[in-house]
Amino acid sequence: MKALILAGGFGTRLRPLSCTRPKILFPIVNKPLLQWTFERLAKNKIEEAILAVNLQTELFIKQHRIPKCGLHITYSRDPLKKPLGTAGPVKKAEKLIGHNAPFLVLNGDIFADINYRKISKAHKEKDAVATIALHRVEDPSRYGVAELAGENRIKSFVEKPSPETSSTDLINAGVYVLSPAIFKYIPKGQEVSLEHEIFPKLVKEGKLYGYVFDGLWTDIGEIEDYLTINKILLKHFVKQHKHKTGRGIRVREPVAFDTGVSIGEKSIIGPYTILGQDVTIGKNVRIQNSVIFARTIISDFSSINGAIIGESAVIGKKTRIEGGSVLGDHVKIKDNVSLTKGVIICPAKEVTESVLTSKIII
């Protein structure tokens, strides 16, 4: 079975982190999201993954040299400056996918603990044109929602309904099984939406089905979602173990340290803290509820709580960074600077004075 991974989005709601990397390469507990996806595909005996990408994302992926987990990887590139939506890339990859068997389509920015073999089996049993993985959430208004009839046939599908009009909490989880018949529904070379244009047609024809699953699921469409999935995985999937640390250092689980991490004496790390590769932490530093990307330096006597700091940033001595702040790659924060809640700093900016109101520094 083949899987098409939709990885061409620009991640505008994840700026400034997405200014320098596509969503699909965001580290989740120090492992790129795409690697988590490859591992799950391999576990489910999927043999080939086709990446629907733009040129920039393709280059980023190849530079990262993500383990292929035994998968055969090919690329289907969107035309330059012409996004194809969610259905257009399916049509674009038609020759690579072929017409011999149903295939998977995965949104590249979701983490879904789902058994691909079970949803594929359900799809074949119903002789469906499309089967959507469905997941229950508290607030379905951010997503497409589906209402089921008998035998899990979808009788209505509405994209992002208002809270007062939604009659179901089953949302589109961004995982589909499609039969080759889907290709005739999608015009060639155009921007087409599966959710807005194709699925409603299939509902009317009675050819759209749902598969409800209860596993862990989230997208990383927004900064809060990204922090949440890291915390969940820290709690449930990262093995508790003692870290080799120096004199007077305290580590409060759960935490995850990548290789090459250095921590100065009397620092307190955790809980819910992730340190990327070659991160350097000074003396008397306090970090909690935060994600620190690779090769960042955090100097002595600094305090970070509830923040995300991008790659190769330099945080000066006696700095204070509060919850909801997000610093892009290569940001420099001078000594004695405080950043209040919700400060967003674009890549490669230098901050020399405290920022005491929530704002974006471009």
Q: Your description of this structure?
A:
- The chain has 362 residues and is an alpha/beta fold.
- It has 2 domains: 2-229, Spore Coat Polysaccharide Biosynthesis Protein SpsA, Chain A, CATH 3.90.550; 239-361, UDP N-Acetylglucosamine Acyltransferase, domain 1 (3 Solenoid).
- It is 19% helix and 30% strand.
- It has 7 helices and 32 strands.
- The protein has helices at 33-43, 55-64, 88-92, 94-97, 116-126, 194-205, 223-236, and strands spanning 2-6, 27-28, 31-32, 48-53, 72-77, 103-107, 110-112, 130-136, 144-148, 154-159, 170-178, 208-212, 217-219, 250-251, 255-257, 262-263, 268-269, 273-275, 280-281, 286-288, 290-292, 297-298, 303-305, 308-309, 314-315, 320-321, 326-327, 332-333, 338-339, 344-345, 350-351, 360-361.
- Strands 5-4-1-6-11-8-12 form a 7-stranded mixed beta sheet. A 7-stranded parallel beta sheet has the order 15-18-21-24-27-30-32, covered by helices on one side.
- A hairpin with a 2-residue loop joins strand 2 (27-28) and strand 3 (31-32).
- The N and C termini lie far apart (45 Å).
- The relative contact order is 0.12.
